[in-house]
Amino acid sequence: MPFLGQDWRSPGWRWIKTEDGWKRCESFSPELEDENSQLNNNISHAVILTDDDEEIYRTEDCEFAAKKRKKDHFRNNTKSQCFYREKWIYVHKESTRERHGYCTLGEAFNRLDFSSAIQDIRRFNYVVKLLQLIAKSQLTSLSGAAQKNYFNILDKIVRKVLEDQHNPRLIKDLLQDLSSTLCILIRGVGKSVLVGNINIWICRLETILTWQQQLKNLQMNKQVNNGLTLSDLPLHMLNNILYRFSDGWDIITLGQVTPTLYMLSEDRQLWKKLCQYHFAEKQFCRHLILSEKGHIDWKLMYFALQKCYPIKEQYGDTLHFCRHCSILFWKDYHLALLLKDTGHPCTANDPDTCFMPVSPQHFIDLFKF
């Protein structure tokens, strides 16, 4: 008979074989104890407010619940989650004579090596966007193990951003969407929309609020460099750099560095090219915005159109799907060049013709039944 853990979709407890028989492996360490002790102190004064200023968790009820939540959070600590090191997974949506069962979003999220992918600068934005889409609509479809994996990877992302100070805006948007979703789901806990104890989810929500505060207080370190700087480049090179950006917020952020970059970032032709790259002409006609001089304000047009239509996504590297093998995989370009490794055990005569890049939304759509 299979062992069922506290979460029926979780792998359950970890067991080790000893001379006296099988014993349960307790994931205890001083670091985890200190973390839970600190969490317990923070919990006793926590109040979570919804958008309507509705109190979900009241201070006067904390004393008993804090002990319960500490226990649940310790047993379900995300740091005890194990990761797969595979870079490919077979995607099958129905049972066949050769294969039984089907692949779920949670299984794919667990099996593919997202933990290592966030360390690759080419894949970082891709993984963050995928986590954001899952937070918006697919969080409840993940299994208990996949949810632990999700928050563990999110913890690594936040730590990475706090250390290297790269892409804080992307993580702020992700945490904002995730906290909004969790507030809605916690209100609907009576409908059994969450896997696991409600105390665990409240702890996770409080952790998200702590991350948001840490990112809000993040101070960018001033780079000390006696060599060539961005301001030393000629105007045509700076202008060329701005034209390489595909995100309007990146252009605005760079324009705040120096007065010269601000002048270049306000160029009408720059914003016109950006609008033409992301949107069709029919969409322009529906949202024309004119300036005081009667000219089209392409900058305002871009942000107005962005609210109504999706923009094109650009990533340094993505997951790939092999149409011949029905396999989803990370393609290692270095191995592909040196060893002619396709990234998965492909049986096609010409594997490269069978590969197609998978956007974050396409990744989620692959597992919709």
TrEMBL record:
Q: Tell me where on the tree of life, at the top rank, the source sits.
A: Eukaryota
Pathway field: Protein modification; protein ubiquitination
Any GO BP annotation: protein ubiquitination
Keyword list, A-Z: Nucleus, Ubl conjugation pathway
| Primary residence | nucleus
The protein's matches in InterPro entries, at most eight in alphabetical order, are given as: F-box-like_dom_sf (IPR036047), FBX25/32 (IPR040394)
Which CDD domains does this UniProt record tie to the protein?
F-box_FBXO25
Please tell me one Gene Ontology term that the record gives under cellular component.
SCF ubiquitin ligase complex
Location within or outside the cell: Nucleus
Q: What does this protein do?
A: Substrate-recognition component of the SCF (SKP1-CUL1-F-box protein)-type E3 ubiquitin ligase complex. May play a role in accumulation of expanded polyglutamine (polyQ) protein huntingtin (HTT).
Report the protein name in the record: F-box only protein 25
Query: Encoded by which gene?
Result: FBXO25
